[in-house]
Design brief:
two-stranded antiparallel sheet, globular, 3 domains
Length: 397
């Protein structure tokens, strides 16, 4: 629940009513957050404005956290708004955070700095709008924030991800070691905070350690104080975990690990169990690779929708999705499905309104190349050709 622990009765009538409304709309499951996104977003922006006017700084910074959380959720992903409010946070935290913090010593206001930086990081590392200079500046700020306000494990998590992003094993390994030194500081979900730690084992090719951690996270073999988080965590679901691990195997260029996890954990799943994972393009590609064509019509629709909505996705998000659709349609053709019922303005259709699967595949490849090139221009350490070759090796060889 948003603003959990805040008593609306202690604030002015307008702010109190806003807080009550937001609390009521976020008492249920995460599905309720998604369903009420527009209403919650409008209310949170109003809370940000009113709380600043009334010098209610704990509410103010918590409202920014909550808005970024909503914007980061897959169902309503709005990365541009997170970038916008990052600038608001930089300005107002410099002006008010340390000055006002002594007045809020019994609140979690200090931790909002870390939580906000987490959401900013999740967007920044994926965007070509954020070049090397901006990314490096942010990482220095993130490190300073965690040293000043606590929760250093969050920064080392981000450092691990940067190592994984650039296939820099030493950077990832050093960050993982430091993360383990601060592991006991974890305040939130154990599963979510260990995702990059799991990923780094795959980058290093440590299949035994990766598999052990994956199974521990799935089967709740974690410290007791974190067990209650399983009632909320969607990332701990087995199929979602398998999808994540397989995705990271591809990203890291580990075809041998990909084949191992695919055969052991994915190929034997029923469609119903596969379908419990998040319905993204990589999961759809995995289904086709396992000769599961049950969701084909829905997949064609999702392809068109992604193209229509690509401006809402980050650079890496688009690059990854189009690499996956490239392989997806090539596999369709290889399996004997040579034409598909999808209309793309740049591609010709036959007299039955069908488009050649290989033509769609080539179209997706060109789009992936464009976004990969954009990201590589912004991040000099990023190797798009490595990632593309890995997709080809894992799915098309």
């Amino acid at each position: 629940m948003f603003f959990n622990g805040s008593n609306p009765n202690t604030f002015t009538p307008e702010l109190a009513n806003l807080l009550r409304s937001v609390q009521n709309l976020t008492r249920g499951s995460y599905d309720e957050y998604d369903k009420n996104y527009k209403t919650l977003s409008t209310m949170l922006k109003r809370i940000i404005k009113v709380s600043k006017q009334e010098n209610e700084w704990s509410i103010y910074f918590h409202a920014i956290v909550n808005l970024m959380y909503l914007d980061e959720r897959p169902s309503n992903y709005n990365y541009k708004e997170i970038i916008k409010y990052a600038e608001v946070y930089y300005k107002d935290s410099a002006l008010y955070m340390d000055k006002m913090l002594p007045n809020y010593s019994k609140t979690t206001m200090a931790y909002t700095n870390v939580w906000i930086c987490q959401y900013i990081f999740y967007v920044y590392f994926q965007c070509c709008e954020i070049d090397d200079a901006k990314m490096d500046m942010f990482m220095r700020k993130y490190e300073d924030v965690t040293h000043k306000y606590g929760e250093r494990y969050c920064y080392y998590n981000a450092e691990m991800k940067m190592g994984i992003l650039y296939h820099d094993k030493e950077r990832a390994k050093d960050a993982a070691r430091r993360f383990k030194n601060h592991e006991r500081e974890i305040r939130g979900c154990y599963v979510c905070e260990h995702r990059f730690y799991l990923d780094h084992f795959l980058l290093l090719g440590n299949v035994k350690q990766a598999e052990t951690l994956m199974l521990d996270l799935i089967h709740k073999n974690v410290p007791k104080k974190y067990l209650s988080w399983y009632q909320y965590c969607q990332n701990a679901e087995p199929a979602r975990m398998y999808v994540r691990v397989l995705s990271e195997c591809v990203w890291s260029g580990k075809k041998d690990l990909f084949d191992y996890f695919f055969e052991k954990y994915w190929s034997g799943l029923s469609h119903e169990n596969r379908d419990s994972s998040r319905t993204d393009s990589f999961k759809k590609l995995l289904c086709i690779a396992a000769n599961d064509f049950e969701g084909l019509e829905e997949d064609l629709q999702d392809t068109s929708e992604h193209i229509d909505n690509e401006k809402q996705a980050t650079t890496l998000g688009n690059m990854g999705a189009y690499l996956q659709w490239w392989c997806y349609y090539a596999l369709l053709d290889k399996s004997g499905i040579h034409t598909v019922s999808i209309a793309l303005s740049e591609l010709e259709t036959d007299k039955n309104g069908q488009t050649a699967a290989l033509a769609v595949s080539a179209y997706m490849e060109a789009k992936a190349d464009r976004f990969g090139s954009l990201f590589a221009q912004a991040r000099k350490a990023f190797d798009y050709d490595f990632v593309k070759t890995s997709y080809q090796n894992c799915f098309l060889s």
